[in-house]
């Protein structure tokens, strides 16, 4: 049901008929026929271990072995697209890194703080659970790649795209010029859709199975992340003229800051909808009392663990030793962060600049103050 709505929206917007997507889907089908087994690891590894490969490719050239095969975590279809679009991969890596960093920022005061591990799974076993956290991680990583590819197009870093060709907004002042070099969000969206989603689409799971449900969940959340970049984009204008007369105004399409996109997706995480897969192989809302999620919303299959204790099986690091806020009633507060176990308090001395004065002209003079503060950590 959710997928049918997605296809209708995509067809109406013309995104499914682009030459780039047609080509990417062709690669997808050929890769899927060659292998339907799931690859070990996670494509987001391009932003961690794989990022160094693309920064220093000469260090990883081993005989005639393709560079893309040396990055663990890519599915067969992704490895093929990697080989065809090698100049895109550093941007994909930057986007994945941005997504991971934003995840860690948004969850810095949560029991699960988006910690990474030293292998190609990036987040460890925790993403094997179809939870809200997995939903957010997939969506923010997809958004990061759209953001990075779109900007790389504008900056002339990629051979197959350039400045945005977005249509002039109808609401734009008729006297203003549309045509500055904007971020190419259209291309970024389409390439990311092909590269990220191929991992799920090349698999062949039994209809209505648990595995198919998880694959559909990932596809839905990937799409939500991509759409967040489009939704938060804005039109930016600049005045031209002698002495700021603004006799000429040029406007273009511009990406929002990735922090703004992260804040938007965090709200979607808080309002995520629990779903299940039915016998027809469709996702549907688990509780009929809730509204059907849109393509912009996050969905999940499983309730989240509490992440209170260290558990290798689920990939939980626990909250022992985590700093907490003794006076907060929120998730960063010692009561919730420490799961009722209590907390330890110790004093620490810090040095900071203080009593700063501005001297004309032009420097600031500060003193160094020593302050003792209390640090609270979970037992």
Describe the structure.
The protein is α/β, with parallel strands linked by helices. The chain folds into two domains: 281 residues, no CATH class; 45 residues, Wnt (Wingless and Int-1), C-terminal domain (Endo-n-acetylneuraminidase fold, 2-Layer Sandwich). 37% of the residues lie in helices and 17% in strands. It is built from ten helices and ten strands. It has a three-stranded mixed β-sheet, with no helix packed on it. A three-stranded mixed β-sheet has the order 5-4-6. A hairpin with a 3-residue loop joins strand 9 and strand 10. Helix 3 runs antiparallel to helix 5 and helix 5 crosses helix 6. The longest helix has 23 residues. The chain is globular. About 5% of the residues have low confidence.
The rounded distance between the terminal residues' Cα atoms is 46 Å
Strand content: 15-25%
Helix amount: 25-40%
The chain-level structural class is: alpha/beta
Please, what is the average pLDDT? 87
Low-confidence stretches: 8-17, 31-39
Order of strands, widest sheet: 1-3-2
The figure for the number of domains is 2
Reading the helices and strands in chain order gives HHHHHHEHHEEHEEEEEHEE
- Count of DSSP helices? 10
> What about the largest sheet?
3 strands, mixed
How many E strands? 10
What is the general shape?
A: globular
Gyration radius from CA atoms, angstroms: 24 Å
């Amino acid at each position: 049901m959710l997928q049918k709505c997605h296809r209708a929206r995509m067809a109406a917007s013309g995104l499914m008929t682009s030459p780039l997507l047609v080509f990417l889907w062709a690669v997808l089908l050929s890769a899927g026929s060659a292998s339907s087994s799931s690859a070990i690891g996670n494509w987001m590894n391009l932003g961690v271990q794989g990022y160094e490969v693309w920064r220093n490719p000469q260090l990883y050239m081993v005989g005639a072995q393709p560079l893309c095969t040396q990055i663990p975590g890519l599915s067969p279809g992704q490895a093929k697209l990697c080989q065809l679009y090698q100049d895109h991969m550093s941007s994909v890596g930057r986007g994945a890194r941005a997504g991971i960093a934003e995840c860690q920022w948004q969850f810095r005061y949560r029991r699960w703080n988006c910690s990474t591990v030293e292998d190609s799974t990036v987040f460890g076993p925790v993403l094997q659970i179809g939870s809200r956290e997995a939903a957010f991680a997939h969506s923010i990583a997809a958004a990061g790649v759209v953001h990075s590819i779109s900007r790389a197009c504008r900056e002339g870093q990629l051979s197959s795209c350039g400045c945005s060709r977005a249509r002039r907004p109808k609401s734009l002042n008729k006297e203003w010029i549309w045509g500055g070099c904007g971020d190419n969000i259209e291309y970024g969206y389409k390439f990311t859709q092909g590269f990220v989603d191929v991992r799920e689409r090349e698999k062949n799971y039994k209809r209505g199975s648990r595995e198919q449900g998880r694959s559909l969940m990932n596809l839905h959340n990937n799409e939500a992340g991509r759409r967040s970049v489009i939704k938060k984009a804005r039109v930016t204008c600049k005045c031209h003229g002698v002495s700021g007369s603004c006799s000429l105004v040029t406007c273009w399409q511009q990406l929002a800051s990735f922090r703004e996109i992260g804040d938007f997706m965090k709200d979607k995480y808080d309002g995520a909808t629990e779903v299940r897969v039915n016998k027809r192989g469709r996702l549907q809302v688990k509780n009929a009392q809730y509204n059907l999620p849109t393509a912009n919303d996050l969905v999940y299959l499983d309730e989240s663990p509490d992440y209170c204790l260290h558990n290798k099986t689920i990939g939980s690091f626990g909250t022992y030793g985590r700093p907490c806020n003794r006076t907060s009633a929120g998730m960063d507060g010692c009561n919730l962060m420490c799961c009722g176990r209590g907390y330890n308090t110790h004093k620490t001395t810090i040095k900071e600049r203080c009593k700063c004065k501005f001297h004309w002209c032009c420097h600031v003079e500060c003193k160094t103050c020593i302050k003792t503060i209390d640090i609270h950590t979970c037992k």
